[in-house]
Amino acid sequence: MGILILVVDVGNTNIVMGIYKGEKLISNWRISTSSERTSDEMGLLLLQFFEHAKVNPNDVKDVIISSVVPPVMYALELAINKYVNSQPLIVSSKIKTGINILYDNPKDVGADRIVNAVAALKLYGGPIIIVDFGTATTFCAITKDGDYLGGVICAGIKISMDALFARAAKLPRVELVRPEKIIGKNTVESMQAGAIYGYAGQVDYIVKKMQEEMGGNVKIVATGGLARLIAQESKSITEINGKLTLEGLRLIYEMNR
């Protein structure tokens, strides 16, 4: 199959992995994030995914990882060393990204936000705002020259709904789907309306205020597991790219190989 690159994005809820051959993503998968897995468990999962994708581990030349979950990293790096025979490149503010981080402390910026910024700037150009619907929902502002200005961090949709379920005794846990009308006729529809329409309104307001501070005429790209669900109600999101983080990892690997 030729030389392959393994890209790994370790998030608070899921670990997303992808295999690139050149610029083409040939396979990707996700597993739940757990600090309880041993390196051998992680390694055997990797081998199962490789087998399913018809990938020979010996063809994997290099590995690059972005992570916001430090407790997972020890077992993950050991697994990659043992089962892929590779020493992974870890994304941090110290490696070459082409992004100039203007945060008060650049080390505070999550690796996933750096990776998304690299991909968004390359694919869409700047100025751009990236909305990442993950465990937390993050908004990142990037100028056309690649300056990372900063952003906004909010509780994710699932966190918000879990808190509502946990703290309100009579409210049930509900499926995150878009109700037909914003005025719910029962408790479930009312909660779904609050989650979907309320979150879309929050996104549009934050994006509007960020655009004003950036001088207007800013592209908006959404990524993350719930991006498509919210984007269909948002007036501000213009692009959806569920593979933005994986693409950013590939681009950073190319800069640093």
Can you give me a brief rundown of this structure?
By secondary structure, the chain is α/β, with parallel strands linked by helices. It has helices at 39-52, 70-83, 111-124, 157-167, 187-214, 227-231, 244-256, and strands spanning 4-10, 14-21, 24-32, 60-67, 89-90, 100-101, 128-133, 136-142, 147-155, 219-224, 239-240.
Write structural notes for this entry.
The protein is α/β, with parallel strands linked by helices. Helices cover 39% and strands 26% of the residues. The protein contains 7 helices and 11 strands. The strands form 2 sheets. Strands 6-9-8-7-10-11 form a 6-stranded mixed sheet, with helices on both faces. Strand 8 and strand 9 (147-155) form a beta hairpin. The longest helix is centred in the C-terminal third of the chain and has 28 residues, at 187-214. It is globular. The two termini are 20 Å apart.
Could you outline the blueprint of secondary structure elements for this entry?
Elements lengths: L3 E7 L3 E8 L2 E9 L6 H14 L7 E8 L2 H14 L5 E2 L9 E2 L9 H14 L3 E6 L2 E7 L4 E9 L1 H11 L19 H28 L4 E6 L2 H5 L7 E2 L3 H13 L1
* CATH C-level category of the largest domain: Alpha Beta
Q: Which spans have pLDDT < 50 for at least 5 consecutive residues? A: none
Write the CATH homologous superfamily of the largest domain.
Answer: ATPase, nucleotide binding domain
Q: Give the helix/strand class.
A: alpha/beta
H-E order: EEEHEHEEHEEEHHEHEH
What Rg is obtained from the alpha carbons, in whole angstroms? 19 Å
Strand order within the widest beta sheet: 6-9-8-7-10-11
How far apart are the termini? 20 Å
> Could you describe the largest sheet, including whether it forms a barrel?
6 strands, mixed
* General form: globular
What is the β-strand count? Answer: 11
Q: Could you report the average pLDDT, rounded to the nearest whole number?
A: 92
CATH architecture of the largest domain: 2-Layer Sandwich
